[in-house]
Amino acid sequence: MNRLLLKWNVGLLALPLLLWIVLLIILPLSDLFISSFQEKVGVGVFEWGLGNYQAFLQEPFYWQTFIRTVLFSIIATMATLGVAFPVAYYIAKVARGRVKSMLFVLCLLPFWVSELVRNYGWMIILRESGLLNHFLMKLNLITQPIEFLYRDATVMMGLIYTSLLFMVVPLVVVLENLDESLLEASDDLGGGRLISLRRIIIPHAMPGIVSGCIMVFMLTLGNYLTATLLGGKESLWFTEHIYNQFMTRWNWELGSAMGFLLLVVSSALVWLGLRMTGQKLNKVMT
Amino acid sequence: MKITKYSVSGVLIWVISLSGFCSETLRILTWGGYAPASIVQKFEKETGIKVKVTLSNNEEMIAKLRATGGSGFDLAQPSHDRIQSAQQEYQIYQPIELARIQKELFDSAVLEATLKAATLGADLYAVPFIWGTNGLIVHQGKASVVQDYTDLCRPEVSGKVSYRLRRPTLISFAFALGEDPFAAYSDLNHYQGILDKVEKALIQCKQNVKTYWSGADVLLNLMRSGEVVAALGWDTTGWKLHAENKDIIYRVPRSGALGWIDTFALPKRAKNRLAAYRWIQFVMQPAIAAELVNEIGNFVAAKDIPSHPLVASSLKQNFADSFPGDTFKNVRWYPPVPPGFETYEGKVLDRIQVARAS
Amino acid sequence: MTFALECRSLSKRFGSFSAVSDVSFTISEGSFFSILGPSGCGKTTLLRMISGFCEPDKGDIVIHSRSMRGILPNARPVNMVFQQLALFPMMTVFENIAYGLRCRKVSKKKISFHVEEVLNRVGLAQSGSKKIDQLSGGQKQRVAIARCLVLEPKILLLDEPLGALDLKLREHMKIELKKLQTQLGTTFLYITHDQSEALVMSSHIAVMKEGRIEQIGTPQALYQSPKSSFVAQFVGDNNHWRGKIVQFCEPYVEVQTEEGWKLKALYSSSFQVGDRVDIFVRPEAMLVKSGEKKPNGWVNCFEGLVSSVVFNGGTRDLWVNVRGGNGSSFSKELKVTLPAQKGDGEACLPSGRAVEVGWDALSSHVLKVGVK
Ligand SMILES: Nc1ncnc2c1ncn2[C@@H]1O[C@H](COP(=O)(O)OP(=O)(O)O)[C@@H](O)[C@H]1O
Ligand SMILES: [Mg+2]
Asked: Is residue C39 lining ligand 1, measured as CB closer than 6 Å?
């Protein structure tokens, strides 16, 4: 009797979560999945088929954009890791007290404004008539203003800036758990800094590195505004493509196929990353 | 498919309609600025109907109504050329009863263009609300060579040009290249030929482009800073820049300005149609319409509005400068887009975007 | 003669707190040298200075005639077994032990050979492929030591390595460590706060207190002739009185204790009437009156009640509650250790029994208070 009651109670508690999962994840996803296999054959008439996926493969600029976006996201993730690791190490192991919290707040700073405002901020600074050019000219470092915007490197920088926190936090968490005596032991046994980094610190931080990378990769892959606003004439982010298919072409079927492909490929890449680093998802995500 | 779609729609409807149950409410799905608070207040005071405004744009409006099966709103304001195809494909609107509206409130040219574009069979699906044009925004001192759209590709303005990668750009360039894309709407092959030509021209022109602008505020900043000296843009953007800097003007190009009309349309499952009709009647009264013109900067499709005494003189001046004499008659109002054309145009736009500037 | 290690007037301050002050000692090669002191007295700090993790403010460290000033930890010919062991959890036992050799870029074959050998030596021959968290406490201990030994350090530094083990294992490891050290001949510098560990294993002990060395000597010397009250109390058990010399009566001096007792202690020429002194008597030097006979040389004698008895196998500890002299209200617990098998009379001294305890003046140890 009691046990039954308990079961019911647990069930009730889980209900909102269940609703959340069903309404916001499972239903839209299955909708996406189903409509990606619908082909439009006439006004308001659909047929089942693989036509959308075929269309995706047959148009080089679709899959080129896709590959470009994925590669770009991987590079951005690695670059974010490269920037975040020293920062996280400093926060976790070197900085103390006030400096520590200040650095953390610094990483949080980009999130005090919306993504749109953040990107407009970059545009104000980096544009041809922007602040950076103004200063460079004032300092006589350049004679002609340079257009910093609308470049891939700018997009990369914007993405790193936005993602930094999501990499720093898990890294700080794992690095704070790193027993300093391990580093001293390594030192004592003759290991230099690089050896300690490669053989002690990085293996220890691996769960944090992987979870940070997964988060940043997903965020950059799904990014829309930064890539659109800071990117140049040729740059097209895959999410922009999907948005266009849904919103301006009204080709929901192709958009669904693209969205589904993005989901599958990004999940596969995450799985691959976990396999390659020998991490388990449940360990990484806690 | 049906089941999931309806369940999603169901939840959306439920969420959206939660707020509308208590008193009589008019739910408008419209563009930013089209239902300013002052007008809404006046309407609420006069009719006792509460107004709930949801901001959107053409694409989202249709996507939203498509997702909810045409419910959740009592009045929508899509562009006139987007109504036929959306209605044919997704049946998201219901016919408008012209008898419930005073026809003489409307400007006849704009009304006629709307009726032409938004009629399906015997049913009319929209009446005009506001109109505007697409043309050139030019810094006269620095880009005097730009007289027509294709002049944006001239070497004199290289790197200092901007336009949107959207269908108005394709169509503008088609006209400037001597084609009539609207006439080709009946012949897909012919239309494809025109698009190919435009695609080539726009890819060649790519090196001239600083960036493709995405929203009016981006274009404003580009022109203000002088980073861009000639652009394809809306009349209001041009007029706004002109007010700040007399050197920048809105120019109706040789091949003509393109005219868009935002309309009133009734979503298929609108709950409060009567309130929607009352709103239409209300905002089309000359005095209210003039007030709206001053607020929005575009001209409401009410009769004789450009000369209405309540309209700000600067706006009148803009109109007179941009459309001297009776050139307003020459505005090319977009005809309705045949279903499926957007897909072709979309691919052209995609190819232009990914092409490397030569 | 060259020493394995020489510390010359080492000092270290943390802010205004002096953790190690003016510490000097030498360790000869092959010895098992312990530093014994209560927690917080600066032992770890001293060891960290020797291993190089911490720079001394003053003084010098010389290892095999080479000054260690400015030499980084990874270049010093010493290795350290950390207090918390600091084994690398992400590696196997083999990898842990091979770590130092890999850092030295020793060939794979040689590494494998040396690691197997040292694993054999510490009795973990089959455990090379195990993960650290699969090991028991004692095994971890041995891996930590093996990890250092494989590098053949001149001196092995051990920072309370047995602290984390349970009592039984600790007793066992004490003997193991001592055996290992004798077998290897490596110089061990061993840190502990446990005097019994130090007494069992060491060839020499330095007793530390508040950052200073109180006394250095063999375990026997420290036990039998402590030079300070601190050492007398810290090393081994002692019964303790404090008092004032009131008169000489050759060959004794008479000491009036704070509790009101009058005790006799052996005369020494440095004593003067009025000196404050501590008197220590080891429990095993205490005597119990059996029958009517007063034992020889029994100059100090107390009546008391046995409050508890602890049987230790070979010995038996009695706690005897004695009352202050001249009817004073003080009372004191004295510890008396007796061999377990002795005459019948004492073999059954139950608690509650009234006894007379005392000691020979020769077996007490008298130290002047406040003089080193
Ligand atoms: N890095 C440090 N900063 C400040 N005080 C310290 C530091 N390291 C040790 N101390 C202090 O020095 C004293 C001796 O510490 P330690 O050498 O660890 O003692 P032990 O190992 O004998 O227990 C302690 O009071 C400790 O608080
Ligand atoms: Mg310590």
From this structure: yes
